Amino acid sequence: MKLTVIGTGYLGATHAAAMAELGFEVLGLDIDPDKIAMLSRGHLPIYEPGLDELLQRHVDGVAGSTGRLRFTTDWQEAADFGDVHFVCVNTPQKRGEYACDMSYVESAVESLAPHLTRPTLVVGKSTVPVGSAERLAERLAALAPAGAAAELAWNPEFLREGFAVEDTLHPDRIVIGVRSEEAEKALREVYATPIGAGTPLVVTDYATAELVKNAANSFLSTKISFINAMAEVCEAAGGDVVKLAEAIGYDDRIGHKFLRAGIGFGGGCLPKDIRAFMARAGELGADQALTFLREVDSINMRRRGHMVEMAREACGADGSFLGKRIAVLGATFKPDSDDVRDSPALNVAGQIQLQGGQVTVYDPKGMENAARLFPTLTYAASALEAVRGADVVLHLTEWREFRELDPVALGSVAAVRRILDGRNTLDPQTWRSAGWTFRAMGRPRV
Ligand code: UDX
Fold first, then answer.
1. CATH number, domain at 292?
2. CB-count burial class (<10 Å; 0-12, 13-18, 19+) for 219
3. Residue 355 CA, ligand 1 centroid: distance in Å
4. Tally of domains in the chain
5. I want to staple 419 with a disulfide (CB 3.0 to 4.6 A). Which of 54, 393, 399, 415 is the partner?
């Protein structure tokens, strides 16, 4: 069985490389020739731990590779090659709207379908509004030449950035939405590899498969906003949200994961996914069911503003950023990624700069992307350089490198030893004993 993967972003590049790792012949397609040229040399346009190595191991033409993975921009080549075609293109938020932009998914199906010449299965992996698969199945059937017998299935992907390879090779579950036994059989065959061994496989209809992804991301977002709401109450009451999260998490119905309070969630998935879900529920007349997600979103966005206010207060009694130097540690929306899409860290940095602060940012992997998006911020080559001369240090992305910083060394270059932890991953005691005024979100001041 040969596979094609359409779209070579985080999802597609990882899926293609992981499938090659499992022994499949894979052809990746993207409409961006520069991306394809780079991938064909075995290089990744993004930073994702372990993925470069996987590409090097399988991309055809790389010395010593298995040659099982190739890339193209040619739809006919992809149609001829694949028995199963995975659609892995992105579904970003529409500008100025909650709804997601389905144009890349639609165009993938519309570009592939006319070239199909034999029975094939097209499998959507992108996160889409419920009802999309049904519509795309009709489009596929209408556009595929007579006799090509193209069928659609929905197989949402749950990978996290920073763990994309691990999550793809060892998923918690596999969900497939199908309409026929043949489609189910073909997907079972794809996953009858180490991926599938021991992994729960849920077979369902299109709508449920689409909704599983919407529901999972909504639940995760709700968990983060819940603990951030508790952080607000803790701050008002003098409580400690970190201890609170630890204590409630011991109840295994609640669990410890996704209960880290701070400046909230960002990235290319959670924020836009909950908004698209609300928009779709509205179209379906079920908007009341998801009004709580509006609150989840607004608690989350409020965190960014709250960090700006904490930084302003830390700058001194006159309540102004003017003439103050702010060091920002972190630019990406999460660690182990170079992704700065909807990054809370950069949002906070940008707001402070707009209000007159002199902001210097350092991030282990996200500097290039950050500089493209926020070219007017100052960027430093290291955490130490960012902190040099700073009146306040803000810890905004929870990289391991920042947990391992030496507060004594940083203290010797800072203008004022004052740090705000926006991720609750630094150890207050270590910083305080090095002479820093340390404040964290949702935790008591000392
Ligand atoms: C998310 C989902 O986890 C994944 O299953 C889905 O396929 C895509 O969207 P990702 O966007 O990679 O994955 O990030 P995730 O690890 O979920 O973190 C999202 C954001 O929440 C980050 O900004 C992170 O810093 C923040 N976060 C996470 C918290 O603020 N607190 C937490 O406890 C956990």
1. 1.10.1040.10
2. exposed
3. 29
4. 3
5. 393
